[in-house]
Amino acid sequence: MLTRLHFIDNESTAAADGRVLEVLDPSTGESFATIARGGADDIDRAVRAARRALDGAVTGLPFRGPWGQTDAAGRGRILAALAGLVAGHHQELAELESRDTGKPMKQARADATALSRYFEFYAGAADKLHGQTLPYQTGYTVLTVREPHGVTGHIIPWNYPMQIIGRSVGAALAAGNACVVKPAEDACLSLLRVAELAAEAGLPAGALNIVTGLGNEAGQALAEHPGIDHISFTGSGPTGERVSRAAAAHCCPVTLELGGKSAQVVFEDADLDAAIPVIVNAIVQNCGQTCSAGSRVLVARARQAELAERLAAAFGSLRTDTATNDADLGPLINARQRERVSGFLAQAERDGLPILARGQMAADLPAGGFYQQAILLDAVPRDHPVAQQEVFGPVLGISAFDSEDEAIALANGTPYGLVSGVWTENGARQMRLARALRTGQVFVNNYGAGGGVELPFGGMKHSGYGREKGFEALYGFTTLKTIALRHG
Ligand code: NAD
User: Are residues 327 and 279 in the same domain?
Assistant: First the structure.
């Protein structure tokens, strides 16, 4: 049985009260590890460690600690070393992630590659974050400088832990913040290993701390802690709202990366040969547990039958198997998630939605695993829960439209606004749709669920606010100071 503890001040540390949580393998439902069950005391220790790394021992004198004294080029060098170590431990990290989350190995490997790439990207960006000089009255020079927020909190979900720590902590460290991370209780193991590698890469003690535990204990304590200067939250809407309220009590800015109900809009002139594999992958990837999953297909009525038939053929051949057998889909993360998906499917069945195809389940799957095959639904009404709410499973719904305006209204007609895809060869229509869709990213004749380290990512509406990834994230992890010099 694997035992993992918090990582605070570059050391493995048990919870202050010694409590632990069991970790289940989603492929079998069996316990294979324990992690520390952190609480407010552990969060406080981590926040103090981060503050010392940044500011040193004396209150009120900022940036005197070892991390605060590391200049931008130095931060970039440490992140570059970390990117190299992650690449060198690629297989080990992928195996840990796959066991912990049930991801097929090919997805876990892709996540480990993305993690290394995030650190590489932010290593290169660290010393390129410039301020400006501003025109002002004669006799003055005015400039802006970007400074780190200070101690940043990072609350991470279980679906892409490595990718999300990469984009969030990578950018925060590059900008000079010290970080306290609270991973999801279902997916901690890879992140604890990443923190060890960061120490090996030369990150000073306290610059990156990981406290594991439950959301309503360690997570809530992090959001409430008055020593946290910025919170990056990735997870569900209701939790994001709770975190924002807790942070508001100490005037702490929050970035919210929440859920989605992303649409792929297929017009009558779309190249279906190109579109179909992309549409399938966008919902099947990570067993549909992707915030930016393309979970709705909106199709011009003239192509509905053809698209439905071809998607049904593709869905019928999708296979669900254990994480190690590396099929199209692994298990869902836990029993609660499987019940959630089953609940949506039961409602679809009660409401008479046509099930066009079901994927295949491998024979002899372990009885305790959390398996779900891919499901394709047709003629989903615009107000049905499957069209409006985040299922977070491998369930794709097709709906037809009769005009471009109807397509736009349908695509925008959910509370969410994360990502959208448009499939058409008509250039003017591509641009009209790209401007009309209320989502943080629009993909035309492609779809990048979660992809693109360089591409700013984040939501509109109930998908959240703030941007992570790309250079834009560095602005989010800094605060702007204006300095006005009167020199005559
Ligand atoms: P969740 O909201 O249940 O949990 C997210 C994190 O918040 C976990 O670490 C959890 O322990 C913590 N948490 C729970 N209660 C808390 C509280 N009261 N205070 C502080 N922290 C608390 O979400 P989940 O089920 O882990 O992840 C799935 C959700 O995440 C989906 O809605 C998905 O769309 C979203 N997500 C969004 C993005 C994005 O970038 N937009 C990326 C991945 C996942």
Answer: yes
Q: Are 124 and 459 in contact (CB under 8 A)?
A: no
The answer as to whether 461 is a domain residue is no
CB atoms within 10 A of CB 135: 7
Q: Is the CB of 159 under 6 A from ligand 1?
A: yes
Same domain, 210 and 111: yes
Inter-residue contact 415 to 462 (CB < 8 Å)? yes
416 CA to middle of ligand 1, Å?
16
Query: Residue 49: what pLDDT?
Result: 98
More confidently predicted of 355 and 449: 355
Q: Are residues 441 and 385 in the same domain?
A: yes
286-320 in b/e form (b: 16+ CB < 10 A) is bbbbbbbbbbbbbbbeebbeebbebbbebbeebeb
Co-location of 476 and 433 in the same domain: no
- pLDDT for 449 equals 64
CA of 290 to the centre of ligand 1 (A): 12
Q: Are residues 151 and 290 in the same domain?
A: no
- State the closest ligand 1 atom to the C-alpha of 184, by its place in the atom list counted from 1: 9
Q: Any idea which residues carry the catalytic annotation? A: 257, 291
Residues 192 and 69 in one domain: yes
For ligand 1, the distance from its centroid to the CA atom of residue 39, given in whole angstroms, is: 18
| CA torsion, ordered 455, 456, 460, 466, to nearest 10 deg | 160
For ligand 1, atom 10, the nearest C-alpha belongs to 215
In a domain, 434, yes or no: yes
Q: Within a domain: residue 460?
A: no
Q: Does 228 contact ligand 1 (Cβ within 6 A)?
A: no
- Give the chain's domain count: 2
Query: 482 and 441 in one domain?
Result: no
**Do 214 and 277 sit in the same domain of this protein?**
no
- Give per-residue pLDDT as tens, 119-155: 999 999 999 999 999 999 999 999 999 999 999 999 9
Full domain range(s) for residue 424: 262-455
The dihedral through the CA atoms of 470, 472, 477, 478 has a sign that is positive
pTM: predicted TM-score of the whole model, two decimal places: 0.97
Task: Write out the E strands in 149-188.
Answer: 151-155, 178-182
What's the whole-number average pLDDT of the chain?
98
The pLDDT of residue 455 is above 70: yes
| Separation between Cα atoms, residue 476 and residue 174, nearest integer Å | 12
Q: Is 176 among the domain residues?
A: yes
Q: How, if at all, do strands 151-155 and 178-182 pair?
A: parallel
